[in-house]
Design goal:
Shape: globular
Number of domains: 2
CATH topology of the largest domain: Protocatechuate 3,4-Dioxygenase, subunit A
Strand content: 15-25%
Radius of gyration: 22 Å
Order of helices and strands: HHHHHEEEEEHEEEEEEE
Number of strands: 12
Bound molecules: benzoic acid, fe (iii) ion
Largest sheet: 5 strands, mixed
Helix content: 25-40%
Number of helices: 6
CATH superfamily of the largest domain: Aromatic compound dioxygenase
Oligomer: single chain
Structural class: alpha/beta
Amino acid sequence: MNIHPVTASAVESFSQTQDPRLKHILTSLVKHLHAFAQDVQLTEAEWFRGLEFLTAVGQKCDDKRQEFILLSDVLGLSMLTVSMNNDRPKACTESTVFGPFYVHDAPHYENGDDVSNGASGKACVVQGTVKNSDGQPISNAVIDVWQADDEGFYDVQKDHLKHAQARGVLHSRADGTFNFKSIVAEAYPIPMDGPVGTLLEATKRSPWRPAHLHFMIKADGYETLITHVFKKGDPHLQSDPVFGVKDSLIADWIAGKDGMTILNFDFVLNASS
Ligand code: BEZ
Ligand code: FE
């Protein structure tokens, strides 16, 4: 297709940009945006509607709510970026989206403690080993875990709650093992009370994230792993609104000998280069 004169002018407008990466990104962005507008033969009314939508996305953001990340999530852009930047050897645990509900100052726990801290849900034990791709245990790995309660809410979504629930930081033992008590993960809908919810409704998409537990694991000499463990059998595994599910991250919460529900999951970190 012939390049439109306005596209050529917009691309040329960045020709003096000193930073080569910035120049590349802006030039490519303009080319793709213009190609998109031509592809759909964008009307002026549609262009304005799009601007209204993005304005509403911005207006929904505050220090607790990031509607732009949610928009990136439901368009698959977050997961595409995660996938492109975390291409690891097959033996290593795969990454998935970070999500908006991580907090920096989660309480610290010892192995064996109950991180649910009063959150509602069915009690369970989560246990496993942190290791490297040769199978060697990694000691003192920092394991950050967070999850929603059985009503589908993270502690940070509850204005009345003054303490952390269902999140915490632990360290792997000398043999790489870790274990903690928590509650069984349940499916929950992503926040639907903003413009991203309107988009999902207009396109008849499911807002339900399959049940999952979030992990961020850090250890000296290894790449940080940001991932989830998804619950096997969850009916929403095929329709995750943020495209975060990977087969290797699906695991079973099983009944243990004493009737306690147990999740066993080992994490394999990639040595940093
Ligand atoms: C989450 O899993 O916490 C999440 C991820 C993306 C969008 C909304 C929620
Ligand atoms: Fe989540």
